[in-house]
Amino acid sequence: MNSDRVKELYVDIKNLQDRLEDNFADILLKLTNKYIELYSENINRQVRRSYLVLFFFAISGGIVILAGAIGALFFNLRENSYAVMVSGAITGFITAILFKLHNDSISEMSRYRDKMLETQKIALALKAAEILPEDEKSKAVLAIIRFLLGTEIKD
After folding, report:
1. Among residues 73, 79, 94, 119, which is most buried (max CB within 10 A)?
2. Separation between Cα atoms, residue 44 and residue 67, nearest integer Å
3. What is the residue-averaged pLDDT of the chain?
4. Is the pLDDT of residue 22 over 70?
5. How many CB atoms lie within 10 A of CB 4?
6. What proportions of the chain, in percent to the nearest 5, are helix, strand and coil?
7. What is the DSSP string of 42-62?
8. Crossing angle between the packed helical segments 134-149 and 78-130, to the nearest 10 degrees
9. Looking at residue 9, what is its pLDDT?
10. Is the pLDDT of residue 133 over 80?
């Protein structure tokens, strides 16, 4: 590469950095909006699918238990029916464990979404601080920093 091309690239990079610094709050806000929307869509799809699988396992466990009971009561197949009923109960137990894991993962995803919303609020606060007069702007940004750090920063 020749030195003129390197200088052009350096100028282009510097211009991009300046634009990024000028529009940081806008970019952050757009990114958080996009990711919150995508995340919500994916979560809803995953929750529906996993709930349907759990529902299927619960119903199949109940059917197995019912089949074992019918075999024991009406067809005099007691030994085989007991084994079938036990396997149905085990299926129900496994379904309960999976349902607990399902609920735990939904709680974790909810916490992650809440953190994404906090990031969005910070971006909105920074964006709102941009339109304030210069003396109020620095106070607002300082208040945001104080809040985020949870400490007292002297003016």
Report:
1. 119
2. 34
3. 80
4. no
5. 8
6. 90, 0, 10
7. HHHHHHHHHHHHHHHHHHHHH
8. 150
9. 65
10. yes
Contact present, 7 and 108 (Cβ < 8 Å): no
Cβ neighbours for 106, distance < 8 A, ≥ 6 positions apart: 47
Per-residue pLDDT tens for 35-50?
A: 778 878 888 888 888 8
d(CA 68, CA 22): 70
How confident is residue 79, by pLDDT bands cut at 50, 70 and 90? Answer: confident
13 is a domain residue:
yes
Cα–Cα distance, 19 to 128 (Å, whole number): 18
Host domain of residue 54 = 3-149
Q: Which has the closest alpha carbon to 57: 102, 105, 92? A: 92
b/e code 103-134 from CB counts within 10 Å (16+ = b): eeeeeebeeeeeebeebbebbebbeebeeeee
The amino acid that residue 130 corresponds to is E
Is residue 34 included in any domain, yes or no? yes
Query: Model confidence at 93, in pLDDT bands (50, 70, 90)?
Result: very high
**Which residue type is seen at 43?**
I
Count of domains forming the chain: 1
